[in-house]
TrEMBL record:
Its EC number is 3.4.19.3. The keyword Protease applies. It holds the Pfam family Peptidase_C15. Keywords: Cytoplasm, Hydrolase, Protease, Thiol protease. This is Pyroglutamyl-peptidase. It comes from Mytilus galloprovincialis (Mediterranean mussel). Transmembrane segments: none annotated.
Amino acid sequence: MSDEEKKKTVLVTGFGPFGEHTVNASWVAVQELGQKTIPGVIIEIQEIPVVYETVKKQVPQLWEDLNPELVIHVGVSKEANAITLEQQAHNEGYKRLDVLKTCPSNNCCVEGAEECLVSSINMEKVCSDVNGSGLKVKAVVSHDPGRYLCDFSYFVSLHIDRSKSAFVHVPPLGKPYTGLELADGLEQVILSMLSQI
C-alpha cells in the first residue's frame, strides 16, 4: 500500500455567500485549511451554495465520489464568537428561504427519517482538545445548528453516516478571528475527530 493510499481523506465544505455574508467566513476558513499540510490526511475542500436542492444532491455525491474518513461541514453564524461544534441536526422545520428563494418540500430534509440525528463524534472531547491546544481560537459545543442550510447539510450527512459526520459554525471574519486562525482551529478539530473514528 502506497503512502497516498494510507492517508485518510477528510472532506471539508464551506458555504457560498448569502444575506449579509457577501464573503462567507466558512469558505474563507476552509480555503485557508486547504493550504495546510496535515500528516497522513488528504484534505478535500468544496464550496456549497446556500441552496437546499443543491445540498440534497451534492453532499451525497461527494460522499460517494470521495469515500471520506470524515466529513465536516463548516458554516458561518453571526451569533458565534468561537468555533462552535454542533452535536446534532434536525430533519424538519426548514421554512427559511435559501438564496434562490426556495424551501425544501414539506420543510423537511429526508422524508421519513427521524426528527433528530446525533453525531457519534463526542463534540465535548473535540472542544476540550481545541481549547487545550494553545491556539488563539476557542471552541464551544452547541445542540442547535439553526434550521437553515447548516442544519440541513449536517442532517444529510448524518443520515448517510453519523459515525463520521460533523458540523462546525465559525464567527464572521474579524469577530474576533482571521480566516487563518479559524483554519488553525479547524485543523485541530480534524485531528481530534480522526482520533475518535
